[in-house]
């Protein structure tokens, strides 16, 4: 009983330490925003220990290790719907003239939940044209915001209750990715041709 009480006190202290970061005056929060933040922390306090999946156990072997670092440094907690059925990615090139080119698509391979260990070419979780249209639209918006050069757009594919598929963008990285280099090497070696609309 004493150990359980000590654990509860430690978690309460961690949540209290984290809550300090949302000082109402410092962030100019309205009453409604402050109440929302407080309710969010309350929800996290109750649900996080039961639902959190630690992806990097070499850094955070236990929940206590993770939450202590999270409380001290801050961080991001990503939610993942159970209906996720794929993780397609698109490599783009945003030309200085404004044209957006799809250079390759791939599907991430996961060894452990949330730890990608490789890719398959092309992506296979959604129709290629739908992914092409979404990626080109995002690339155009990125260009409009001043981004040029290589960009990787990460998506997650969700299965809807009616059986349809939906793609959500989860990340945009302005970088030349290793997956694009691998694709271009094997495309060159096999004298292949890539149709961006067909994958």
TrEMBL record:
InterPro entries: ATP-grasp_IQCH, IQCH. It comes from the Eukaryota. Pfam families: ATP-grasp_IQCH (PF24923). Residues 21-195 form the IQCH-like ATP-grasp domain. Signal peptide: none annotated. This is IQCH-like ATP-grasp domain-containing protein. It comes from Polytomella parva. The lineage of its organism: Eukaryota, Viridiplantae, Chlorophyta, core chlorophytes, Chlorophyceae.
